[in-house]
């Protein structure tokens, strides 16, 4: 099931995406009653997908991201994979949706794309045992962990480099019925392939990451875990269109603009 968050005529809601580009009339949204965390009902009111504006599929209280979870990516930046996951936070204000603009930060001159599989949490959880991880996951979406690489290297910590406004595109929707173990991940810039990898190349599994994170903090419904990026990260410039495509989910596209 694909669950999208959308806006139409000033109203915001959630809906189940039905059909695709090959479907007669195109895909539609069946608007749901309430929110997707737990049981919900479809209203039966359907709106063509091209008549709404897709929003970030969730409004997380926090985004917990994992660095160096693909060995080839760690190597391309001259880093080693450590004994424990490298975790950092991106604030809720960094989140934007499909089609929204990535604003090039004024403090950087080296902006990079990082295509990632994002895990969307469906229930409040803490100290989750490995065998219960699937129970706390609502589904999966595409993410771009946009990074001011020069600031990351210069400042030795990642709060500004990875947490600036618009640095966390998410979307286009949440796929709830998906096995994340071996999915293709691709990033293109202006139609040119930059990254191509598979989730099976992760150093640590999603189960490992959720266990590790929830040892330290409570995750709330709608929180997001970014699982790391494959090799091939590279520069973004003002005017570029960057797209993250994940097998079984879809494509998240954003354009880079000058801030201000």
From TrEMBL:
<dbReference type="InterPro" id="IPR011234">
    <property type="entry name" value="Fumarylacetoacetase-like_C"/>
</dbReference>
<dbReference type="Pfam" id="PF01557">
    <property type="entry name" value="FAA_hydrolase"/>
</dbReference>
<dbReference type="Pfam" id="PF10370">
    <property type="entry name" value="Rv2993c-like_N"/>
</dbReference>
<feature type="domain" description="Fumarylacetoacetase-like C-terminal">
    <location>
        <begin position="62"/>
        <end position="256"/>
    </location>
</feature>
<dbReference type="InterPro" id="IPR018833">
    <property type="entry name" value="Rv2993c-like_N"/>
</dbReference>
<dbReference type="InterPro" id="IPR036663">
    <property type="entry name" value="Fumarylacetoacetase_C_sf"/>
</dbReference>
<keyword id="KW-0378">Hydrolase</keyword>
<feature type="domain" description="Rv2993c-like N-terminal">
    <location>
        <begin position="1"/>
        <end position="57"/>
    </location>
</feature>
<protein>
    <submittedName>
        <fullName>Fumarylacetoacetate hydrolase family protein</fullName>
        <ecNumber>3.7.-.-</ecNumber>
    </submittedName>
</protein>
<keyword id="KW-0479">Metal-binding</keyword>
<dbReference type="GO" id="GO:0016787">
    <property type="term" value="F:hydrolase activity"/>
</dbReference>
């Amino acid at each position: 099931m694909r669950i999208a968050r959308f806006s139409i005529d000033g109203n915001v809601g959630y809906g189940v995406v039905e059909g695709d580009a090959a479907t007669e009339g195109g895909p539609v949204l069946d608007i749901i009653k309430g929110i997707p965390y737990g049981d919900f009902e479809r209203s039966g009111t359907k709106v063509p997908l091209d008549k709404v504006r897709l929003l970030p599929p969730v409004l997380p209280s926090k985004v917990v991201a994992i660095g160096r979870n693909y060995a080839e990516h760690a190597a391309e930046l001259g880093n080693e994979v450590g004994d424990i996951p490298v975790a950092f936070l991106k604030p809720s204000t960094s989140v934007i949706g499909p089609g929204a603009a990535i604003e090039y930060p004024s403090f950087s001159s080296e902006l990079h794309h990082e295509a990632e599989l994002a895990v969307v949490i469906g229930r409040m959880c803490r100290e989750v045992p490995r065998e219960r991880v699937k129970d706390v996951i609502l589904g999966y979406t595409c993410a771009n962990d946009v990074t001011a690489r020069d600031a990351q290297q210069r400042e030795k910590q990642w709060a500004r480099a990875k947490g600036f406004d618009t640095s966390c595109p998410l979307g286009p929707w949440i796929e709830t019925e998906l096995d994340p173990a071996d999915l293709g991940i691709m990033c293109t810039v202006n139609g040119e392939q930059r990254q191509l990898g598979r989730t099976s190349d992760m150093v640590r599994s999603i189960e490992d990451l959720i266990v590790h994170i929830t040892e330290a903090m409570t995750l709330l419904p709608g929180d997001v875990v970014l699982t790391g990026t494959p090799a091939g990260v590279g520069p973004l410039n003002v005017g570029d269109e960057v797209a993250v495509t994940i097998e079984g989910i879809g494509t998240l596209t954003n354009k880079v603009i000058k801030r201000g």
